[in-house]
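Continuing the batch. This is chain 6 of the set; chains 1 through 5 are on the previous pages. Same settings as before, nothing changed between runs. Recording input and output for traceability.
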Amino acid sequence: MSMNPIKRIMLLLTLSAVVPTKALDARVKREMQRQQKITAKEVAHWQLDQAESSLIRQELANDGDVQYTGKLTVGGQTMDAVLDTGSFDLLVFSQRCYLCGDQYRLFNESMSPELELTEFRMDHSFGSGSTKSLQAYDTVSLGTLTSKRQSFWDVYEAAMPILRDATFQAILGCGPPMSSVKMALEEEDELKEIIESKKRNGEPIPAEMNQELDHYIAASEVAKETPGLVSQLGIQYFSICLGQVPGSKGYFIWNDYDPQASMTNFVQVPVVGDLYWSAELTDVGFNLNSQQQEPMMLGCGAGRCSAVLDSGTSLIVVPPMAMAALQGALRTLSLTANCSDLSGLPDLEFRLDGKLFTLPPSSYMGEVSGSLPSELSHLMPHVPVQRPSLLQDQQQCVPLLMTLDADTQFGPLWVFGLPFFRRYYSTFELGPSSDDDSHFVAKSMSFALADEDCNLRMGAQLESHMSDRSKHQAIKVKGSKLRAPRWMYKRSKTGRKSSTSETTPPSSVMVCSARSAWQGAPTDKEPEAPYAWKARGAAKCPRHGELFRAGPSCR
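Output for chain 6:
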């Protein structure tokens, strides 16, 4: 029987305390040295012993360094899924969706004898577009982990240009499990407040508004009664690590070990807020801890900010003022036109919960080829527009950053996407809620240094380790494949929104708010006749005349 390597080391250390022989000490030393580089092959052997652990180290395929996918089985059909810590639901693209990519790779409903389709309809919004779906149930598996009659959303229509040549057929939301419920209840309470305000002012309550409230109530009940896949599988710890070499694979580790019980120097950061995997962010800049160079502050120096850790976002997302400061700093630094030498650039430094983190220049500088999707071009105004040409796409060395002007109760919002996971082995911890121990919520995140192949660096101190910039290569990305945070598209159109609660993207279960529809906001046409919202599971947006799953207002 194979033994968990951490347990093996601990056993040897225990024996050495009882029998302190030189031979045993040498064995301990050799074992610790060997475990400094844990290969994927060894991990596969550990997985065979389910009596020891149900840990699953899932390999992630790399699509142009801007998207990673892992295998997921739904109704006996295996597909590639984006494992997204920035969303909360499981979406499966079916063959009924003609604009969802290669039809032969999409979910075939007729091939699944256990599939249950309901009539409850919902729209989902992402940074790269939106989808329409039906609630469904089927058997879903992640490796050896299986959930019977798992609830998911069967997508039958999509407006997502990225799907044209997408390598994924599903999106698995790994965000905090109760977020969908909380967002649904917030939207429900918001509409109730509007109705009560109208009653106090003696204003008539449109029938459509009461019908919309019925839909909100029904949607929040659906969210409560249908736990996500991560919750159903009873997963407490899961981790992400991406290879540092351009084009290399990544790993998603399910049922990972408790990082605080391991021999690796993990740094634990508490989750702030209750909707996302987010932490308190301060002191973002260059050379902040250098004794020889002038520090350059980019943001979060005068006050705190909020950082969301999002594996579904291709790049790092920063406030516009931070982007302007970075561009100003770059003008004073040495940089080649084609990003072939990044050694003259400093590490990006910042603090999460007061603990120092660093990202190499390759995390914020790179080469972009091709044109950006229209929905992302205004989010990356620093990327020059390429004119159509018969020549090969020109490579442009630019900051690999997106901009977003949004506030949270913890300050300006930053999003750390895939570049963060190339540097740090990141473990996410779920635990029982203090209000209801039957519900799991986000508890903490733990981070440790990993080498270029995603092996943990045993004994490496997080805060004292700067990157070797000479070893990091700039990544080359295709603009058409970039993925933005799921809430960015709406935010970029509606502008900055200050809130007393954590930044809320388009709600995971709601439709466009009645606030703009019935409080004098301009509309293109009058509200339509009463709509069968509860049966269809979505409301009609009177401005656009189409179904919206979520959004703070109809704009």
